[in-house]
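Example for tutorial group B:
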């Protein structure tokens, strides 16, 4: 259940498809390489041919927006270096000059959501959102509406929890798995990891699937959040 304002029925379903007819530019800013990579991949699946640019601090984001303002969508991490809550959001909104901005966060608290929307953000997305819900949220924003998960109001949305305790054989990470995870956190693609470790790309994908299962993550984005919160790799 979500609080949002968007076209209904088939009109809403057509937004993403119609967007593919023209070139899109999306700026994604997040200081966690794994989550940044996951969001970028999802955006590129949703919008074939989209041009994406990335940043990992407020300063980098503002520099990019100073040089080019013709973006169609901004996806901004609430807590990346330099943000400082309201101040960072306001600075980006001012530079964006009307480009819709969506704030992403691992922890969603009603007061923070209200601040972001109050200074001009068009949406607030928990980093644990399911892929289909993430796509629907962007659908809403690109249609000119706003997206706010209704469950945020009244109580905080907790970060992704660590998986329940499991037998040692199930939850311990092998040395190879830790190596792959470290490379993913560094922002390396599956293809790059396979080349560096002399593995087939499909083998890397299988290893990552096992890693997600051990983390208790449903997808790459949730795994990214867990690693960023320090449940793995320190």
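The residue assignment follows.
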């Amino acid at each position: 259940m979500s609080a949002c304002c968007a076209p209904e029925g088939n009109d809403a379903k057509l937004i993403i498809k119609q967007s593919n007819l023209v070139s899109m530019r999306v700026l994604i800013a997040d200081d966690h390489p794994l989550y940044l990579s996951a969001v970028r991949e999802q955006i590129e699946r949703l919008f074939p041919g989209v041009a994406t640019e990335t940043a990992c601090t407020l300063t980098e984001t503002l520099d990019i927006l100073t040089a080019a303002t013709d973006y169609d969508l901004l996806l901004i991490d609430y807590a990346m270096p330099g943000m400082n809550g309201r101040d960072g959001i306001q600075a980006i909104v001012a530079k964006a000059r009307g480009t819709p901005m969506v704030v992403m966060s691992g922890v969603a608290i009603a007061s923070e959501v209200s601040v972001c929307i109050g200074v001009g953000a068009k949406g607030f997305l928990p980093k644990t959102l399911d892929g289909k819900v993430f796509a629907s949220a962007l659908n809403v924003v690109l249609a000119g509406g706003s997206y706010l998960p209704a469950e945020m109001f009244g109580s905080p949305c907790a970060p992704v929890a660590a998986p329940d305790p499991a037998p040692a054989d199930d939850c311990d990470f092998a040395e190879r798995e830790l190596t792959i995870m470290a490379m993913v956190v560094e922002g390396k693609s599956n293809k790059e990891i396979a080349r560096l470790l002399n593995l087939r790309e499909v083998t890397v994908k299988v290893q990552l699937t096992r890693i997600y299962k051990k983390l208790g993550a449903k997808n790459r984005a949730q795994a990214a959040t867990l690693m960023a919160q320090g449940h793995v790799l320190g």
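Confidence is low (pLDDT under 50) at residues 5-21, 153-170. Compare this with the pattern of hydrophobic and polar residues in the output above.
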